[in-house]
Amino acid sequence: MNKKKIVNDPVYGFITIPDELIFDLIQHPWFQRLRRIQQLGLSNLVYPSAVHTRFQHTLGAVHLMGLALEVLRSKGIDITDEEKQAASIAILLHDIGHGPFSHALENILVPLHHEQVSDLMMKALCHSVDDRIRLALEIFNDQHPKRYLHQLVSGQLDVDRLDYLNRDSFFTGVAEGVIGYDRIIKMLNVKDGLLAIEEKGIYSIEKFIISRRLMYWQVYLHKTVVSAEQMLIQIIRRAKELAQSGESLFATPALQYFLMRSELDLSERSAWLPHFVLLDDSDVYSAIKVWQSHPDTTLSLLCRHLMNRILFKVEFQKSMFTPSQKEEKRKRVSQNLFNHKEAIPNYFLLENSTSNSAYSKQTGPIWILLKSGELRDIAEASDQLNISVLSEPVIKHVMCWLDQPL
Amino acid sequence: MNKKKIVNDPVYGFITIPDELIFDLIQHPWFQRLRRIQQLGLSNLVYPSAVHTRFQHTLGAVHLMGLALEVLRSKGIDITDEEKQAASIAILLHDIGHGPFSHALENILVPLHHEQVSDLMMKALCHSVDDRIRLALEIFNDQHPKRYLHQLVSGQLDVDRLDYLNRDSFFTGVAEGVIGYDRIIKMLNVKDGLLAIEEKGIYSIEKFIISRRLMYWQVYLHKTVVSAEQMLIQIIRRAKELAQSGESLFATPALQYFLMRSELDLSERSAWLPHFVLLDDSDVYSAIKVWQSHPDTTLSLLCRHLMNRILFKVEFQKSMFTPSQKEEKRKRVSQNLFNHKEAIPNYFLLENSTSNSAYSKQTGPIWILLKSGELRDIAEASDQLNISVLSEPVIKHVMCWLDQPL
Amino acid sequence: MNKKKIVNDPVYGFITIPDELIFDLIQHPWFQRLRRIQQLGLSNLVYPSAVHTRFQHTLGAVHLMGLALEVLRSKGIDITDEEKQAASIAILLHDIGHGPFSHALENILVPLHHEQVSDLMMKALCHSVDDRIRLALEIFNDQHPKRYLHQLVSGQLDVDRLDYLNRDSFFTGVAEGVIGYDRIIKMLNVKDGLLAIEEKGIYSIEKFIISRRLMYWQVYLHKTVVSAEQMLIQIIRRAKELAQSGESLFATPALQYFLMRSELDLSERSAWLPHFVLLDDSDVYSAIKVWQSHPDTTLSLLCRHLMNRILFKVEFQKSMFTPSQKEEKRKRVSQNLFNHKEAIPNYFLLENSTSNSAYSKQTGPIWILLKSGELRDIAEASDQLNISVLSEPVIKHVMCWLDQPL
Amino acid sequence: MNKKKIVNDPVYGFITIPDELIFDLIQHPWFQRLRRIQQLGLSNLVYPSAVHTRFQHTLGAVHLMGLALEVLRSKGIDITDEEKQAASIAILLHDIGHGPFSHALENILVPLHHEQVSDLMMKALCHSVDDRIRLALEIFNDQHPKRYLHQLVSGQLDVDRLDYLNRDSFFTGVAEGVIGYDRIIKMLNVKDGLLAIEEKGIYSIEKFIISRRLMYWQVYLHKTVVSAEQMLIQIIRRAKELAQSGESLFATPALQYFLMRSELDLSERSAWLPHFVLLDDSDVYSAIKVWQSHPDTTLSLLCRHLMNRILFKVEFQKSMFTPSQKEEKRKRVSQNLFNHKEAIPNYFLLENSTSNSAYSKQTGPIWILLKSGELRDIAEASDQLNISVLSEPVIKHVMCWLDQPL
Hints:
The structure is a homotetramer. Chain A has helices at residues 20-27, 29-32, 54-74, 81-93, 114-128, 133-140, 147-153, 159-172, 181-186, 202-220, 223-244, 253-259, 269-276, 281-291, 297-307, 323-336, 378-381, 387-390; strands at 6-9, 13-16, 188-191, 194-198, 313-317, 349-356, 367-369, 375-377, 394-401. Chain A contains 18 helices and nine strands. In chain A, the strands form three sheets. A four-stranded mixed β-sheet of chain A has the order 3-4-7-8. By secondary structure, chain A is an alpha+beta fold. The mean pLDDT of chain A is 92. Chains in contact: A-B, A-C, A-D, B-C, B-D, C-D. The interface between C and D is large, with 46 and 46 residues.
């Protein structure tokens, strides 16, 4: 059977599956599951076409990894075929640990971070599918001596970001988020074992940083999206509370399993992993729809509001909310809940903060390879863009609250 | 509140919601439900990005309707503001009666055709939301004297087709399916009360017909998609059989309602409609995942195969399958079920036929408005393309069967 | 110096110059000249953005040749590095013999066909630049044993057509002309030494044929373009007549050289080639602008009309024009020239015919490689599109005449 | 005759000519001339597809003006039909005074700035074509009370910039230069008589500023382009010197006219304008090709180098070139001219400086209309992008010199 398959992709035209092992991993039920997990959680409530999935994103990232490694090889960087395969597998599986609604419910529904789960699942696949995944794990966990391979999987300018910025701007229709991914990839190089961008690619990097910032505020942290995701979190919080206090709740058995548990013993993966790999967005959607008529007023109100897209009002501000601001909103919520005395007000008034830096030094700098052969941090190499300003995180304080009488 | 909203759409850039009534209908839970029904059923198993929804398609069709009506008005066709709104509502709601997986499960899960349900739901909305929907219903049902308004909603060259061909080729990445929708719309005219295309648009129409044909064979009737959809149908058939014989089956209450019933009394819409409007793809996905471990071997085998994308083998041929061809496949299925004696072989060997004509005269011809002022059927006006050949339906006989031992 | 350059191209993103010899040929003044020859002659009078040049087209075709050869190699077809380079050079230079306005003035301004000139220039470059061009010449002239290499340069489905259909539809903005060039290339194969398309690419080929037909009638043979190009031909005819009868005419020396001669002795290439390689569109444009005030009324009238885009009226019809139709137009022309008695009426009333077949068997069929391993002509393999009809040439008879009084 | 024509445009799909007066102006020979003047001078030597013309750009800007005015009207800004037409004419004609090679030869070949010439030509058209152009002139010259109309024609965020950034990035293939023109236009508003962008458009504006900066350094001031344009300027300087000292030079009469004159009396437009309106790129190209064999060594060397794309070497640096740097290059030039003693070294060693600010306050700020109703300069409203840094001009000192022995 010919496993060198070609997949149509509206973003890149065609994606070629590079080899049989990768093909087999894509066919694995754990990976197929990503077809049913949307990349951007509830962003489709604002951008209706943003229903693309982790599955597509991951294939796209594999495609870019292939291009990037070919560029590096053509510049004389020595990358063996095994390393090439392993880097592709590392990026293929980097998101396999995502649960329903990706980041929106991360750490809420299942009390785990997706990278931890990806790591565990890769280890399991190493045993059950193919031992060659071990090299991918090394790269994924930055234990491989060629550190630039890890940087391509997870860094300031990795193929993950290149694909998601590109893909998310494509599917949301926010054309301004588009980046010159092909030009950036052509400018990649390695110097002193570090991934770098050749000097003439500097404007493309500036553009990349600005586009990322734009996507954050216009899509990922869009007010309406934040409001909807906060409501979703409250729904799951309340459902867990009810489930753990013995209330009966409709749910698939897999979802039931996690609603009942407040903590997981990561080390006992054979206990929870079989349930985890059955979860996707449909478990959550199908439950929330049923919960709209649950006897618990708090739960049913939240569910009805979310499903009918009557969302909480949101305010963002740079400073913390003052006690009087909070008090005022608390009063509004009370009034709006007048006909639902049993509803717990806390669930209808939420406070949070979001933070984003367009360029963050912690992840390590983006290195520019000057014509002179030196490496320089983009923050210094850019002759004008004030990247030191861009790298300070923008913190926005958020309040969401029920704004209509029910 | 400003209800003249703008929606980002990767296909057209921006879509403006034309008025408040339409905005309110979009906000209605029945319409929001379309966000959770994929336009192309299981086509995403072949084209991973084809996860776009009925919601997007319908907004796109409303957008094209607005453009088309403006073109006609600019050519002196008298269309009142009420008619414009009604035509937009008719296209907005034309697909509201779709159930989970759109056409793939039409008439199978819920024993109804989507147009019938759309009609009923529009009538209900007329009562509960706004009486102006009545005019839309007249257009939808071809009872309005300006027949070209109906033709724009449902005809050989309606805005429904213009949007779905365009959108489906965009999201599948099958770039060849792209049509010159903007040029076609600019060439629209009305003559003798009929919708027509001006003569110089004739090549665009030929192209439209060929693109439609290509999309049928390359996407809608792609072998792998046909195989997956046949498997989905068998799953539902089996689940209904079990449910109706008293077996216990995990399902949301809404899905349960329809699994239990083999027939519906359409006239009693108050009985079934409240259940219907809760259904979307997630009810089916969440159930199938659970059914993978159902004690009924037939059901659980089918579910495991579909979820893990181990699909039945398919053959298409122009002539009917001969008894010996069928016999041979029957033997294969028996062998492959060797370890599952309780499985019912019929569910693993399916026969069907597909039919498609690129241009079908029954729906009425596409009229070309000649420079001389006469109308002529494209089939005669095209100086070369053999549309009479294209209008003969292509029938392909299909067999799908279990091809691997389990 | 790094000659492995990357060129930005709006159609394909980036084009990589494959090797140093090809880079040197691109830098050659004869090739640089193509930057100043528009691909589509006067089509920009209808499609203002269609000012793209032979230079871009040729680079694009080289890019597609590279993709095609890689696909064939990946399917096990043995192609040496020398053959790969030679095929790329053959396509790079296939249009080098084009003169000003490409096809529009072919055989009119310079009494030669562009292929003949390309052949001569390739031979000359063989001597002056690099002997490796000899292998390219063999492929170009179909004297190479691997005939599929020639078919990629010049056949029914060559990379020339793939690029020009793609590029011309891109730059004219006739989006409907777009073809699935990438899919077609991925489906290429070689069987019995012939270039073929794998069976599953059949719809893409049908689409390619229809798109080509659409581009012919909508762009290449657009009425207004035909009218303008006929006027341009009359201008050159008249200018040659005047020049050869001793009249003084402004022109660059190179243009002068060809205006003075009615015939060329191909064998004496050292006489005329040095003049030919100086010609481009600017010689013709700069002359026509000056000739607008030439004392010869026929010439100056034609030039003023063309430069100011007051074009002749055109009629196309399927049958030949009857004597009475011609007579009627002759009268109109006489009336319209009333104030310009010295003008020669023949130049203001033109008759011609155009012919195009969407699929022409003479160039050899497009072979489909069936799954069974057999080759079949697309005309038989297509289960529905009536290619035998499409392969009959459509002949349209054309008359153009001066329609306004001057 | 139907003058409401539709024009295909690859950037926007279709452009509708808004009315008959505008149609007539487009048909005017002075405007048709823009079909033969490339938008980006010699940028096509780096970006081969950047051969698009002032004609296309201007139609595109008219299209955007129409969209912008419709947006403003829909927000309640009162704009009469006459004002709408006048604003469209102002933008249609804003570039009509451009000469060959647009900015590259501005003030060199014809000793005038294009805006001055546009102004004069608009006045002339006012007399000869239609008096309604007078209102367009008022807007063009900022003499109209509704100043936002002028700002749309010429300001920091005018439709000129929106079109050229968009179009130049499209045709160069520098995809990163793309801007969200449609979103920016939808966010336009007027407050206190000034053009402003609504607050939620702020990220689009940041993106616009960064894209503009990127286009400057990557396209408009690309080193190779700067080198070629400097060479072109030297050619014209030398040709004028020779012509004015009585040397015979091949040239069209119109070009001849300007070569002979070092100064023009603007007030006597009837003397020079008839020559000016005949000039386009072809006059210059056809002359330079002939001058390649001119007896003046300086001229012919420069021409041969430019036509064959053997360009001067360029260096950019932030500080001024030191005497020793200059001396070193002077020596190189002398050595390289060893075989051409008669060549004047000055013409082969050029010094210059370029300057660009991504955001320049002189043109007036970009106003952001806050939700509170206040106007604020983007430089203050942007919560992070350091626009005050971006508004400082980046000055780069440039030297170009002959780097190969001849």
